[in-house]
Amino acid sequence: MKKGLIFIGFSTLFFSTMEIAIKLAGSQFNPMQLNFLRFLIGSIILSPLAIRHLKGSGFTLDKSKVLYFLFSGLMCVVVSMTFFQMAIVYAKASTVAILFSCNAVFVIPFAHFFLKEKLTKLSLVSLVVSLAGMLFIVNPENLTNVTGITLSLIAAVTFALYGIVGRKGSLKYGFDGVVQSSFSFLFGSMELLVLIWITKIGAVAGWLRSVGLNDFANIPVLQGISWGTLPMLIYLGVFVTGLGFSFYFLAMETTSASTASLVFFIKPALAPVLALLILGESITLNVLAGILLILAGSCVELISDNRQAKLEKQRMIKQPIASKEAHVR
């Protein structure tokens, strides 16, 4: 358990500095370029752990799995993380960090409708409390950054959908989280690289600029990488994306999924504090109230998950006993 808590600590630290590091690197790299580079590096760092998990499993990368990873990579890297990168351009790092952490809240209704998972009363309470917290942060009465808020919420919702896709893949193919993430990051990076090459076509680049999408026109691949920018790129790719997810999955192995999910419960509180210290971003009273509500909602969901896990465990224990009694009769 002690080792698991250490893994959770490192994962939380790396994930909580993600938006800050991207904000600092934003002036040196194109947002889409940075997205591609960090997930490509992240997939490479995750690959040894994924290979270890697949050892002796008889895993083969057939057409069905390739199509699946192409879709999951599209949802994660190309769609969700593109909106995430753009959100950091238009909004404060702390705001994006808090709102994106709410992706776990959106998983609740998606899991009910797409995976037919039971929607408990505690899950509903968690959803309502967390949504109230988001409203405090967004502050509709004084909404000055519509673009940044909208992009952050779209990123959170689409990442929640990626989570549902991942669960479906796990049920169908028997993948665990590290295999799912490693392959999805790799395939998503390759898809993003193809799109980057397309933006270099003269006619395409001209059209994108004509409609005001300058960040998406003629996207560079390696431009901007220098001895000065390499440390930040390594931090984002190796530590935040690669080791951040590695420690998260190792925490899951040594503790439990519910305990490991504390990473995403701590992040909404820690990220704004780090953004204040590193970027000088202020924490207003409504944002503080929103953080507290989101943390409360997350705690309620954690309690709900633990209760469901205990009920499932009791059910599994009772089944063999019932079977034995029926056999005796």
Summarize the structure.
It is built from 14 helices and no strands.
How many distinct helices?
14
Question: N- to C-terminal separation?
Answer: 43 Å
In round numbers, the mean pLDDT is 81
Q: pLDDT below 50 for ≥5 consecutive residues: which ranges? A: none
Largest sheet entry: none
What is Rg? 21 Å
Q: Which overall shape is indicated by the principal axes computed on the Cα atoms?
A: globular
Structure in words:
- The chain is an all-alpha fold.
- It has one domain (2-328).
- The chain has 14 helices and no strands.
- Helix 4 packs across helix 9 and helix 7 runs antiparallel to helix 14.
- It is globular.
- The model has no long low-confidence stretch (mean pLDDT 81).
Could you outline the blueprint of secondary structure elements for this entry?
Elements lengths: L1 H15 L1 H8 L5 H24 L8 H28 L2 H9 L1 H12 L6 H18 L7 H28 L3 H23 L2 H9 L19 H25 L2 H4 L1 H17 L6 H44 L1
Helix pairs in contact: 1-11, 1-13, 2-5, 2-11, 3-4, 3-9, 3-11, 4-8, 4-9, 5-8, 5-13, 6-8, 7-14, 13-14
InterPro entries: Diverse_Substrate_Transporter, EamA_dom, EmrE-like
Keywords: Cell membrane, Membrane, Transmembrane, Transmembrane helix
GO cellular component, one term: plasma membrane
Structural key phrases:
329 residues; mainly alpha; 14 helices; 80% helix; EmrE-like
